[in-house]
Amino acid sequence: MNLFQSESDKYTKEQLSAREAQRLAEYIAWGPVIFQVSRLMVKWGVLETLRDSIDGLTLNELKAKTSLSEYALKILLEASLSAGTILIDKDTDHYTISKAGWFLLNDPATRVNIDFNHDVNYRGMFFLDEALKEGKPAGLKTLGDWPTIYEGLAKLDKQVQESWFAFDHFYSDHSFDKALEIVFSKRPKHLMDVGGNTGRFALRCVEYDANVNVTIVDLPGQIGLMTKQIDGNEGAKRIIGCPTNILDEHSKLPQGDWDAIWMSQFLDCFSEEEIYSILSRTAQVMHTDTTLYIMETFWDRQKYEPASLCLTMTSVYFTAIANGNSKMYHSDDMVKQINRSGLKVVAVHDSIGQGHTILEVKLK
């Protein structure tokens, strides 16, 4: 198995002493409780209050500043000591924020992940065993009655929808600047954005180049959302939508003189056989000068291992909530389906944004 150095260092040899391993096992066993305590330490401002104090705060001082009861604070503070997000001075009884607590509070990716896991994933993970055995998103019923989450995105409860899109946009938006440089180095005039979602990348494209026209291919509900989102923005008239159920193997992509085809965090929404079907249909509308750009976060190609952790856990969301059969892929698995589809990878761009890779793909 090919792994970047950060993953190889972590995943190929034992890292912990027996005592450390035992504690990690208990940390996992109590993981749901630790998560909820830590989430409330952020939500109710306890960590922020500790961060902003100079020498830390006592229980009574925190009670005055947070308006939480003494009982609630004792529960949260004592659990947080064990979780490692705060520290205590034994001589003064002052609580202070730890390094882990600081990242929990201040790291943008962590904040997005907290909301995503609480609002989108938490209840549905109870049905993970069923999802794994049946290959269906058994936990999705906690959010609504749809075959996959994609049919229901436009109908999700407001808070769930906000957390879902914040998660999706956070990881893609940080990659757009470099991605635009790569895509527009070849001066495309006609670009197809497959799985274009709310049109954020399409808007960046028409802003970046006044001569490009963009066609977004997505589910009908998403095209409706996209149309509302881009309305009134500069260049929006050069963006059109093409409602298509890409999961239907009989649905064809629109024909056109495509210079570029863009798929960002799209193929990870499908199983390997579905990816093969989509790429095969994509090849049918490509010509020799067309470049297909596939931007994905491959868990094996991360500079820092915590990113791999986030990605392999995101795979579990796909299993239990999203569709029951897709994941965040190892890059070798994606390249295998590209080759099967009559295509070939001609260039690889790593370390884009929050750990993305762009594969440049051509017809064989």
Automatic annotation (TrEMBL):
Keywords: Methyltransferase, S-adenosyl-L-methionine, Transferase
O-methyltransferase C-terminal domain span: 178-327
GO biological process terms held by the UniProt record: methylation
Keyword Transferase assigned: yes
GO MF terms, alphabetically ordered: O-methyltransferase activity
Protein name: SAM-dependent methyltransferase
Domain of life: Bacteria
Domain named BVU-1015-like N-terminal dimerisation-like: residues: 22-91
Source organism (scientific name): Segatella salivae
InterPro entries: BVU_1015-like_N, COMT-like, COMT_C
Keyword Cell cycle listed: no
Signal peptide coordinates: none
